Amino acid sequence: MVSSALSLLAGILLVQQLPVLPETQWLIAGGIMAGIMAWLRYWRVLFFIIGLLWAVLFAMTRLADRLPADLEGLEIPVTGIIASLPEQDDRRVSFDFVITDSMQTLPHKIRLSWYTPVQSIKAGQHWAFTVKLKRPHGSLNTNGFDYERQLFIEGIGATGYIRPQVKPVLLARESAWFHISVWRQTISDQLSELLATSPSLGLIKALTIGDGGAITQAQWEVFRKTGTTHLVVISGSHIGLVAGLVYFLVLRFWAWTGILKWSPQQVAAIIALLVGVFYSVLAGFSVPTQRSAIMLAVAMLAIITQRNTRPFHTLATALFAVLLLDPLAVLSAGFWLSFIAVALIIYTVAGRLGKLNIIWETLKLNGVMSLGLVPLTLLFFQQVSLISPVANAIAVPVISFLVVPFALLAVALMFIAPMLATWLFWLVDELLQGLWWLLVHLAALPYAIISHAQPSIWALLFALISILILLAPKGFPARWLGLVLLLPLIFTENQRPAIGDLKLTLLDVGQGLAVVIQTAEHYLVYDTGAKFSADSDQGKKVLLPFLRQQGADKIDQLIISHGDNDHIGGAKSLIQGMVVEKIFTSVPEQLIDYQAVEKCIAGQSWSWDGINFTMLSPVEQLSSENNNSCVLQIQSAHGSVLLTGDIEAQAEAWLVKTYGEQLKAKILIAPHHGSKTSSTLAFLQAVQPETILIPTGYRNPFGHPHSQVITRYQAINAHYLSSADSGAISISLTDGVWQVQALRQTNSHYWNFLNYNGASPN
Description:
The protein is an alpha/beta fold and 762 residues long. The chain is 45% helix and 17% strand. The chain has five domains: 2-64, no CATH class; 69-178, CATH 2.40.50; 193-373 and 388-449, no CATH class; 457-490, no CATH class; 502-757, 4-Layer Sandwich (Metallo-beta-lactamase, Chain A). The protein is built from 28 helices and 28 strands. The radius of gyration is 28 Å and the shape is globular.
């Protein structure tokens, strides 16, 4: 079973690396090969081929349920059911919407945003909307959050917003009363009513119904720094704990009744299984809860049928079932963290001799998890919490043995005995507040969390062998040698430009601008993208993950070209998340809370590692904030780069008049996102760029880049790329040669926009 499950996993995983899915004839050939392997009884090869075929068929079905290109941007009347708990921020409410009727051929499930809704939105409501939709599209950056992948995993075929001009109509309040989302919504509403003044409301919702929407960004930051994020969501350990508690109570009760027609063990196993599965579904049936529910089912069915099972076979059965249910689960970090965590526990505990000591075993498992998951944590997040073992040693028993059981009991009682439920919630609230106080102080310790460059595949393989050696039984010889194999993981070194070379990355931040320039020993960031809400901005979502993946430990220079949100919005998160030595900006008054802020003025210059940086603008006489953007020229021995912010015709004319031929550059970041009021022909002729990078958002409301601007780019024979079509664009100067790479062309997958769209940039 173990080898079959791993073979199935390998086949599915291979498909997820493909830039495009294979043609139908390859599926036919694969089916024939599977038949041959079955006849020859080569079971491992058979399951590998089955994994390939199943993943491809599943992906084809999912991709077929996406919005047709010709329906983008049209106003389309639809009716349907709200299929998720709505997420509310300070601008809008978002939710998944299952379409039940439409005049057009639309995906089964879409994700909608309603700006300034006129009434309360609840899961299960049946609405008639007029919507504007677009195909799944998101920013694509190295190590950034792949929104397109997330939509693909969740089966979302389009995103869009509700048009307020045609009044939405509520057709029914609970047309899908049997749907689990309605139950979750009912519990959520009741919790909000009973715990309206409790600071722990968001945590209690997360632990009972898996709704983390009310947890603030500050709380997530503390959990991240202390390595306790896994405790705030319903994980496999929570499912197992609840099922185990129910099993113990039912076992004792049934034995006490003296009814022997059914054995106490079988009755307890059946009820524990039902409760565990129900809790998993109530939590949204995420990958960790799927795995736990399936493992629980295997274990309980073994008790019911009176069969013995081996732990790794149970885990393999769970892996097999999860992959057959949803092969796209392998695209989730939670899948790997969940299964590998359980595998480490089994490897450490199963078959070991010695007297069981609950306290020691709990501490030991805590240490095993802290050490064993470090490689995956570095791979996915490039950060490791050094205080995680201490924080988890305290938080795990508090959450697992006190908070979760009392909270679930209170949820069960609040509909029949609200007074008793209120008292239990008060107890849960006190426990959570005490734990929160401790976690806040731990998170504030120096070096509570460290950042590290993303490890290579080879470093991960060596680390896996190292962990297996270190966690081997005591009789294993020279276990300490496992530490040697951890060295490649610790001393990961990213390749940096040589002296005189540089690397520029135009990050894909939608309708905004963020550029990272690397020299041999320095990092410069030019603009930081937009801020969307109090908890979401491009500094946090894109810039920090990218810089950590590149191995940066500080930013030597941050330049904010001007004060528009799409340029300055991510600055606060960036400054809080990484050391910034110095800041230049045309709007120092907007960053007055930070030290080392200086107004950018024409004539400022400095040199790093054989590369010269010069501020060409602004000057006082220019009229608008856009025209007063910080204009930066980066000069090497083999050509220049010009970063222009949002300058328009007035500033461009001044630059041409003042600098003339000195403006010449091989690389130009398009002024003002390619707007009609910028990129004048005189300016382009002075710069003579070979490559122009246009920072724009997909289907942005401003129509950037304007068709007239594109015509002017073509008139000077410049090669141009848009971040909306290309994702992040990197330009490297190496040994005098400039190389341009667009992420959607070099490192995208079959679910990404370019591949299923079939388009390509200029």
